[in-house]
Write a structure and sequence with these properties.
Layout lengths: L1 E4 H14 L5 E6 L2 E7 L36 H7 L2
Parallel strand pairs: 1-2
Antiparallel strand pairs: 2-3
């Protein structure tokens, strides 16, 4: 574990973070007492998204305006355009 002073951390924080490797810890000291730790998080591995991977998982019905009747009090401009 690396040890640095609070003043060093304040002056060089972006550089310190950039040099950290996943799982590495830096302990920050003030007046010879530990006050904080910086720990580089391990990046999550995520599979890249593939176009079309959600095909068949849901259906969008574009001509269904009946469900909007319940909201006619809240959407007066929309109700006139759908003929309620």
């Amino acid at each position: 574990m690396t040890h640095i002073t609070l003043i060093e951390a304040q002056q060089h924080l972006p550089e310190i973070i950039a040099k950290l490797t996943p799982g590495e810890t830096i302990q920050i000291f003030q007046d010879d007492r530990p006050i904080a730790r910086l720990i580089m998080e391990t990046p999550t591995t995520r599979k890249p998204r593939k176009p079309g991977s959600a095909i068949g998982t849901f259906t969008i019905v574009s001509d269904d305006n009946e469900h909007l009747q319940d909201f006619s009090d809240y959407m007066p401009l929309l109700t006139s355009s759908i003929g309620f």
